[in-house]
């Protein structure tokens, strides 16, 4: 652990947790590997066992390691899902489903569009917009929380269709829209809020990858503005680049 | 603060910090806004002043807020840089420079390619590869740490050229390569390691957006494998999507 880090007053257990996390993320420890014992860590970092235990507990809370009774602590398999981001790829396609799944609708409402949403959808600020909150799970594990906004004048029944089909592609088709394309995607990362962590089943300090995206009709008409918060520990975003050969 | 969060034993100041962070990231508090006083926060959350102060201190450590002597604590401007990811966009182009800047080279070496790097570069495992570590700053603020790998047989002088030019485009041109394209990009997010935080000037708990990318010649020959760690609090990744009209 570096002196500069120590000098910030950052607690010893957090530094140890960071070192172990780096061992895992940088490939020195792999899924299924046994972590050094508390005693071994205490010796390696020159701390007491309690501090080493606290470091391990924090990694366990993040889901990076898991303690197995009687046999030690292991790096979790940490099934990581690849989510493709491209012009015509949908969440579910990239996860191997048939439809563009929206997941389970948690909440929906028709309400005045906030100024930034209205600008993205090309409607007047305060004009009615449909907001749909949904939770996407894969194999029972929460993967992403999505907030979608639609122009209520264009798609008044979209929330009901999403509840019925759990699929954006199917819900849009039911509204007469057969094709749409991704116009823009911006990616950021931040700490999960308390409610995001609760819904995504994440521990303290967990991170969300946040995508803000606009889908349009092929002619460029705005269709859907969405903000998705992915559990960073379970997702990689794979960005589609066009083939320079023009395929 | 939710009961479920409280039940995890998560400390009160972290919960308060999360709530305030959400106020900022979700737009209820904007850059330049004054944060409620310690007393007001203590009252709002039913904690003592010390706990409220700890929450503010942790946000200050992340660079999200800053205390100004005598006038209170404010949401920082937090200049956020947009980094474009596309087929032919380079870091510097997206930041408005003339070249594809690699930043200041911290370290370089020619060494046997690890198996995963060799596979990406299409060379034999253990064959010599040039590894270059660089730090990219914008307006004096550290933005990203990059590790680049090149086939040493193809580009033996690339490290020296990068040190000389601080530009990937210029360094490749000096090696006779006039054009290259992005073949793949995968984005993830995790906590910064201790050394990453030190080099990027980040506080405890800070997050890095990690991109793993392959650049190739137009004919698909692998050219450069790079892993970039962006300070998440200072960067948004803007993904380029092709125009469906084929422009």
UniProtKB/TrEMBL annotation, chains A, B:
GO terms for molecular function: DNA binding; DNA-binding transcription factor activity. Signal peptide: none annotated. CDD domains: WHTH_GntR (cd07377). The keyword Transcription applies. PROSITE patterns: HTH_GNTR. NCBIfam families: C_P_lyase_phnF. PANTHER family: MANNOSYL-D-GLYCERATE TRANSPORT/METABOLISM SYSTEM REPRESSOR MNGR-RELATED (PTHR44846), MANNOSYL-D-GLYCERATE TRANSPORT_METABOLISM SYSTEM REPRESSOR MNGR-RELATED (PTHR44846:SF1). This is Phosphonate metabolism transcriptional regulator PhnF. It comes from Microbacterium paludicola. The gene is phnF.
């Amino acid at each position: 652990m570096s002196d500069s880090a120590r000098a910030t007053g950052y607690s010893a257990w957090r530094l140890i947790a960071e070192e172990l996390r780096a061992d895992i993320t940088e490939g020195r420890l792999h899924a299924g590997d046994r972590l050094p014992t508390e005693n071994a860590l205490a010796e390696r970092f020159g701390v007491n066992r309690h501090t080493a235990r606290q470091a391990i507990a924090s990694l366990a809370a993040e889901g990076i390691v898991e303690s197995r009774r009687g046999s030690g602590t292991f790096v979790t398999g940490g099934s990581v899902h690849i989510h493709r981001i491209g012009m015509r790829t949908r969440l579910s396609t990239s996860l191997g489903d048939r439809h563009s799944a929206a997941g389970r609708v948690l909440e929906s409402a028709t309400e005045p569009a906030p100024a930034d949403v209205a600008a993205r959808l090309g409607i007047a600020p305060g004009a009615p917009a449909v907001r749909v909150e949904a939770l996407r799970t894969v194999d029972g594990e929460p993967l992403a929380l999505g907030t979608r906004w639609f122009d209520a004048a264009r798609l008044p029944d979209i929330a009901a269709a999403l509840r019925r089909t759990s699929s954006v592609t199917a819900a849009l088709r039911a509204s007469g829209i057969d094709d749409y394309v991704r116009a823009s995607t911006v990616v950021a990362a931040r700490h999960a809020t308390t409610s995001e962590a609760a819904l995504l089943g994440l521990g303290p300090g967990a991170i969300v990858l946040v995508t803000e995206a606009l889908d349009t009709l092929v002619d460029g008409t705005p269709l859907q503005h969405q903000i998705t918060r992915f559990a960073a520990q379970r997702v990689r975003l794979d960005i589609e680049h066009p083939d320079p050969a023009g395929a």
